[in-house]
Amino acid sequence: MANFVDRVVLHLRAGNGGHGVASVHREKFKPLGGPDGGNGGRGGDIILRVDPQVTTLIDYHHSPHRSAPNGKPGEGDERNGAQGQDLVLPVPSGTVVTTRTGEVLADLVGEGAEYVAAQGGRGGLGNKALASPRRKAPGFALLGEPGAETEVVLELKTLADVALIGFPSAGKSSLVSVLSAARPKIADYPFTTLVPNLGVVTAGGERFTVADVPGLIPGASEGRGLGLQFLRHVERCHVLVHVIDCATLEPGRDPLTDLEVIEAELAAYVPHGSLGGIPLAERVRVVVLNKADVPEARELAEMVRPDLQDQGYEVHIVSAVAHQGLKELTYALAAHVKKAREEHLVVEPPRVVLRPRAVDDKGFTVRRETAGDGEVFRIVGERPTRWVRQTDFANDEAVGYLADRLNRLGVEDALLKAGAVAGSTVLIGPEDDAVVFDWEPTMASGAELLGARGSDLRLDERERPTRAEKREAFHGKMDAAAQARAELEAERRAGRWTEDD
């Protein structure tokens, strides 16, 4: 088990988005050239991708916590921050991604198949991107969104056409070794096989794979032995082969009883019905009576063969050690596999359909709740929550901008309809990390006292006179000066001014 892991729980944290920056362009003779703050970079995603070179999940067993890089913050001179690099986690083909509750998120089959398990946060906008004809000089920028944090369960379910199942030491590993080039560990004690062994078998023009599933015992579907850990590897197999030991010396064991016990465990195991294409109970069954090189085992196999055939099973008597009956078994399995492939030509993993909300979706709700310290109003919605995460509450202008956005969205009207009054407690965001406001119907900040939000009188284009206005003002000054000189000259001629002797 140290070298093969087929189930792990991953704790993933995608990269945070970089913050936008508030900056003003400055150069010689132009100290206030307008906003030039760049946007923050997007945080890196965490992507699960099938890699044919990977055959186990052992790397994630030792390191289950994975994080993607964060996006870089923006800079002045309209320089956007670098995006965080996506973190790609290679997984084997046949990996099923589920939640803790068992909901299937993705079934990764085939080289290159991938699934975005955790999405990086979006970068915040700089004040250059926030500028508009009505908001010429934003003195704030938006913060980057945090990356998604989640837990996913990875389960590896072997991709094989034929599964060999049976009690420990029934000869499954020996059968795989003689049917294919696989070399599994073989010994004369129970539970020799601790991992599923795969072998490729060629019979005529048909080529198929055989999986040796570790031994099952009574109660395997309830967690006894190793069966529960590896029953998932039979879910994708078209043909189930019961390998029965006819030479066992254990008391209470015989071929018919062994078959009933294993069938009961298969019936008790509840797989995910969509992964293998057909329900487990409807798979083709083949019974292999093994170890026929022992005279007593051969005699027992011949004795129980009619009874098994009467039950509807196809029965083969073989000896993996003496290579008896293997050719007939191989061609019979190839025929079953070919038929199954023809009946299920399109066996595709379930496609996960993502239906993201529209960009202009304004959906939100206001819930009236009772908390320990009184009544509160909780705003639930993707856009209000995202806007709150992007707001720098240390900046009064940014808080005012948030108030404007919420007001345009209709949050204030909804609060009034829900019964909120001035001073009511309003929560925006997830229940475990909400932002608390003491609501006022009209939110204003000190920045509005200087004029419209996002404006700067020093950058107002209307304060700069045109050439005609400058010419008119110049001529007005010259005319006023000439008039003043004429009045002084008239007063002097009238004798109002006297010169000292």
TrEMBL record:
Pfam families: DUF1967, GTP1_OBG, MMR_HSR1
Extent of Basic and acidic residues compositional bias: 456-478
Residue span(s) of domain Obg: 2-159
EC number per UniProt: 3.6.5.-
Positions that bind GTP: 166-173, 191-195, 212-215, 290-293, 319-321
Domain of life: Bacteria
Sorted UniProt keywords: Cytoplasm, GTP-binding, Hydrolase, Magnesium, Metal-binding, Nucleotide-binding
Subcellular location(s) per record: Cytoplasm
InterPro entries recorded: G_OBG (IPR031167), GTP-bd (IPR006073), GTP-bd_Obg/CgtA (IPR014100), GTP-bd_prot_GTP1/OBG_C_sf (IPR036346), GTP1-OBG_CS (IPR006074), GTP1_OBG_dom (IPR006169), GTP1_OBG_dom_sf (IPR036726), OBG_GTPase (IPR045086)
Domain OCT: 356-441
Binding of Mg(2+), residues: S173, T193
Residue ranges, annotated region (Disordered): 61-89, 456-480
Record's subunit section: Monomer.
The name this protein goes by in its record: GTPase Obg
Gene: obg
